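Next up, a chain.

===
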Amino acid sequence: MIKHNILFIDRSDYEGRKIHRIIPNLQQILKELQERLDNVHGSKWNIEPLRLEKFDDFHSQVEAITSASVLVGVHGAGMTYSLFLPEHAHIIEIFYGDRGSGNRQFHNIAHWLGLKYHETAYAGLENTEVDVDLIWKHLSKAVQEFE
């Protein structure tokens, strides 16, 4: 059985650096999404956080991204790694209120590379909890395309 990876970019604070547009309930979201995936699709899907700053080098970061069928993240620099997603991968971009969907950078990258792109509706003010259903709406569509 093929196991698919979903990587969720974790924008948590690190090394004294204050990061903006974090999802404070990320661990809860990851747990609930994994439960939904298991219930609907069995154990074919694995969702995990991606802390890019934890890798030793750029090559290791890119290697992790190339293993993903779906990349999920809040609009920000980490989403640039979508350049290294494999063919047929999906991008799910989350927008907080300080960034609008007029920021089309990652939509354009997806279009140029032939990737599937999904964007969330307004997810609230910066650093507020995100409703898991907002992400599930797009993730379930992405996963179905691999079934």
Summary: The first helix runs from residue 26 to 41. Residues 4-10+24-144 form a domain with the Rossmann fold fold (CATH 3.40.50.360). The CA atoms of residues 40 and 140 lie 9 Å apart. The chain has one domain: 4-10+24-144.
